[in-house]
Design a protein that fits this description.
This protein is α+β, with helices and mostly antiparallel strands. Helix content is 27%, strand content 27%. 27% of the residues are buried.
Protein backbone atom coordinates (compact mmCIF):
# COMPACT_ATOMS: atom_id res chain seq x y z
CA UNK A 1 0.00 0.00 0.00
CA UNK A 2 1.44 3.43 -0.88
CA UNK A 3 2.46 5.67 1.97
CA UNK A 4 0.00 8.47 2.69
CA UNK A 5 1.76 11.74 3.29
CA UNK A 6 0.25 14.07 5.82
CA UNK A 7 -0.34 17.51 4.38
CA UNK A 8 1.66 20.25 6.03
CA UNK A 9 -0.63 22.69 7.82
CA UNK A 10 -0.97 26.05 6.15
CA UNK A 11 1.21 28.68 7.73
CA UNK A 12 -0.82 31.40 9.45
CA UNK A 13 2.13 33.69 10.06
CA UNK A 14 5.90 33.90 10.16
CA UNK A 15 8.33 36.24 11.84
CA UNK A 16 12.11 36.38 11.90
CA UNK A 17 14.76 38.74 13.21
CA UNK A 18 18.42 39.06 14.12
CA UNK A 19 19.42 39.46 17.77
CA UNK A 20 22.73 40.13 19.45
CA UNK A 21 24.42 37.16 21.07
CA UNK A 22 23.87 38.51 24.55
CA UNK A 23 21.86 37.37 27.57
CA UNK A 24 19.68 40.50 27.20
CA UNK A 25 18.37 38.98 23.95
CA UNK A 26 16.46 36.31 25.90
CA UNK A 27 13.72 38.64 27.23
CA UNK A 28 13.75 40.52 23.93
CA UNK A 29 13.08 37.29 22.03
CA UNK A 30 10.29 36.31 24.44
CA UNK A 31 8.65 39.71 24.00
CA UNK A 32 8.83 39.41 20.21
CA UNK A 33 7.23 35.96 20.42
CA UNK A 34 4.42 37.21 22.68
CA UNK A 35 3.73 40.05 20.25
CA UNK A 36 3.81 37.69 17.28
CA UNK A 37 1.37 35.26 18.90
CA UNK A 38 -0.99 38.04 20.02
CA UNK A 39 -1.16 39.31 16.43
CA UNK A 40 -2.52 35.99 15.13
CA UNK A 41 -5.85 34.35 15.81
CA UNK A 42 -5.25 31.19 17.81
CA UNK A 43 -1.79 32.35 18.86
CA UNK A 44 -2.88 32.43 22.51
CA UNK A 45 -3.06 28.62 22.44
CA UNK A 46 0.74 28.53 22.18
CA UNK A 47 1.60 31.09 24.86
CA UNK A 48 1.97 28.92 27.95
CA UNK A 49 5.27 27.19 27.17
CA UNK A 50 6.55 28.81 24.00
CA UNK A 51 8.38 31.61 25.84
CA UNK A 52 10.14 29.11 28.07
CA UNK A 53 11.21 26.96 25.10
CA UNK A 54 12.41 30.00 23.13
CA UNK A 55 14.25 31.32 26.17
CA UNK A 56 16.09 28.03 26.61
CA UNK A 57 17.09 27.87 22.93
CA UNK A 58 18.36 31.47 22.91
CA UNK A 59 20.17 30.99 26.23
CA UNK A 60 21.83 27.85 24.86
CA UNK A 61 23.03 29.75 21.78
CA UNK A 62 24.29 32.68 23.88
CA UNK A 63 26.12 30.54 26.43
CA UNK A 64 27.49 27.72 24.29
CA UNK A 65 28.04 28.90 20.71
CA UNK A 66 31.77 29.21 20.08
CA UNK A 67 31.67 32.24 17.84
CA UNK A 68 32.99 35.80 18.04
CA UNK A 69 30.86 37.92 20.34
CA UNK A 70 29.76 40.17 17.48
CA UNK A 71 28.07 37.31 15.59
CA UNK A 72 24.28 37.57 15.64
CA UNK A 73 21.55 35.02 16.33
CA UNK A 74 18.71 34.53 13.87
CA UNK A 75 15.32 33.73 15.42
CA UNK A 76 12.31 32.51 13.43
CA UNK A 77 8.71 31.70 14.41
CA UNK A 78 6.21 29.98 12.10
CA UNK A 79 2.61 29.54 13.26
CA UNK A 80 0.02 27.24 11.72
CA UNK A 81 -3.36 26.20 13.07
CA UNK A 82 -1.76 22.98 14.37
CA UNK A 83 1.64 24.02 15.67
CA UNK A 84 4.25 26.66 16.36
CA UNK A 85 7.79 26.17 15.09
CA UNK A 86 10.58 28.06 16.84
CA UNK A 87 14.10 28.19 15.41
CA UNK A 88 17.29 29.72 16.78
CA UNK A 89 20.25 29.88 14.40
CA UNK A 90 23.84 30.52 15.47
CA UNK A 91 27.18 30.42 13.67
CA UNK A 92 28.61 27.45 15.60
CA UNK A 93 28.26 24.16 13.71
CA UNK A 94 28.58 21.97 16.83
CA UNK A 95 25.40 20.06 17.69
CA UNK A 96 23.79 20.71 21.09
CA UNK A 97 23.96 17.88 23.60
CA UNK A 98 21.09 16.79 25.82
CA UNK A 99 22.90 16.09 29.09
CA UNK A 100 22.04 14.11 32.18
CA UNK A 101 22.10 16.55 35.10
CA UNK A 102 22.54 15.76 38.78
CA UNK A 103 19.82 17.04 41.08
CA UNK A 104 21.99 19.68 42.74
CA UNK A 105 23.40 21.25 39.56
CA UNK A 106 22.11 24.76 38.91
CA UNK A 107 22.29 24.70 35.12
CA UNK A 108 22.27 22.27 32.20
CA UNK A 109 18.56 21.49 32.03
CA UNK A 110 17.64 23.71 29.07
CA UNK A 111 17.52 21.10 26.32
CA UNK A 112 15.87 18.63 28.70
CA UNK A 113 13.08 21.18 29.26
CA UNK A 114 12.77 21.71 25.52
CA UNK A 115 12.54 17.94 24.95
CA UNK A 116 9.83 17.64 27.60
CA UNK A 117 7.72 20.59 26.45
CA UNK A 118 7.99 20.31 22.66
CA UNK A 119 6.23 17.84 20.40
CA UNK A 120 9.52 17.54 18.51
CA UNK A 121 12.88 19.26 18.57
CA UNK A 122 16.16 18.90 16.78
CA UNK A 123 19.10 20.52 15.11
CA UNK A 124 20.11 20.90 11.47
CA UNK A 125 23.00 22.54 9.66
CA UNK A 126 22.29 25.97 8.23
CA UNK A 127 22.27 26.48 4.48
CA UNK A 128 25.73 27.33 3.24
CA UNK A 129 27.40 25.15 5.86
CA UNK A 130 27.97 27.82 8.50
CA UNK A 131 26.27 27.23 11.83
CA UNK A 132 23.16 25.40 12.86
CA UNK A 133 19.47 25.87 13.56
CA UNK A 134 18.05 24.37 16.73
CA UNK A 135 14.29 24.05 16.40
CA UNK A 136 11.27 23.01 18.44
CA UNK A 137 7.67 22.37 17.44
CA UNK A 138 4.95 23.09 19.98
CA UNK A 139 1.32 22.12 19.80
CA UNK A 140 -1.55 24.03 21.38
CA UNK A 141 -1.09 23.72 25.15
CA UNK A 142 2.27 21.93 24.69
CA UNK A 143 3.78 20.80 27.93
CA UNK A 144 0.46 20.40 29.73
CA UNK A 145 1.22 16.72 30.39
CA UNK A 146 4.76 17.53 31.53
Amino acid sequence: MPEVLKEQPETVGEYSCWLSRHQKSVPTARGLLRGFLSDHQGGELFCDYSGLVLGELVTNAVQHARTPSDRLLFVRFALSADDLRIEVHDADSRQPVLRRVNGDEECGRGLWLVSELALQWGCRPCAGGVGKAVWAVLGPQSGAAA
